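We store sequence, tokenised fold; for instance:
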Amino acid sequence: MTTAASTSAPPAAVPVQQRVAELAAAHIGAWQEGYLNDRSHAVGALARLRRGAGREAGETPDLWTLIDTDPLHTTAAGARPLSEQELVRAENALHAALTLWAFHQQSRGVPMHRRHTRERPAGLGAAVRRLMPADGTDAPVRKRLVRAGTAPDLATLTQRLRDIVALLRSAKTPVPLDYALLAGQLYLWQCPDGPAAVRRRWGRSFHELRIRPDTDRNTASDTDEKTTPDTDKDAS
């Protein structure tokens, strides 16, 4: 009698987009908790991040020791190291998402990064939809989302997203956003055919948002607030 040798399959490589989302969630999770509890290191981190807004990753030396990108340079067993192009895209996406979150969170006493779930969407399209009346649409606000989707490059996209974030933070009840999810999408945006894929996800979340009668459509805080990235690859 013979027995087949048991072999264990190598662990599946984590997509770069997901690695960027997880790293963004780890950074924001710690800073957001500290900021909401008025811890000096977190308050200082937000101030430093805001000074890096609108600049390319690596352009602000003060952020070199603040944004830890070491996990992007480590290679899991059986996986290949990221290429130089992948690293640049990942660092750009992480920098953009973190600085946008810092701008959003500034002077707000509730979490502005919120985990996306199907029951409580927190992607960009859903967040923009929450700015609109429950019984209709606001054309100027919707056009901002469309305009962001047609940005020719990441720098322009980041600036247009900042304009949207300004509306989210200044709403009567500030509207949160899943910045881990956004970080992954900003990575994807820089890839071939990435802008079209990201636009589809933003549009899907905008149109599929469903508001439950017993849920405040603009509630920014809740007992189930988490800072982990969404695991639904089609979520937006």
